[in-house]
Structures are given as C-alpha cells and as structure tokens.
Amino acid sequence: MKLAKEDWGKKWVEALVMLPSYLALIVLVVKLNIILSVLIIFVAQCVLGNVYSYIVIEKRLLNDQASREKSAAIFFLSQLFVLGVGVLLISLA
Description:
Blueprint: H1 2-59, H2 68-92
Helix pairs in contact: 1-2
C-alpha cells in the first residue's frame, strides 16, 4: 500500500512539472486558432476581390442590370460583412 502512495506522489510531481508545458500548449493552440481565423478572413477578402474583378471587369455580367457603382457597392458591403463576421469570431475565440 505504501508503494502505491509513493507512485501517486510521483505522478503528482510529474503532473506539476509538466503543467507549465501544458498551459503553454493551450496558449499556443489558442494563438494558432486566432492566426488561422485571420488567414481565413484574408483569403475570403481576396476571393471576394477576385470575384468582383471577374464578374464586373472581365465578364461585365452586372453592367446590364446594375451600374458599376452599384455593383462596386455590393461587393464592398460583402467584404465588410466578411470582415465583420471574422472580427466577431475572433473576439469570441
């Protein structure tokens, strides 16, 4: 019975020694999650910019239905929406 208590004491000491490493790992995962979220927002903004240039400038699909200013405003607001949702997700993380 005494041997089991000694093993339990060693396990607690090992756990306390490893605690800073586990905490650092948790902080690192949280920071990487935020970095990943920022990268996703950046990619989404780039995709929206490419969609705008493809639809409005190259294909001119929206020119018959809406003016260039209206289509630019639509894509600008969609970029603001993506940015706002991204900032909200980062603040909740």
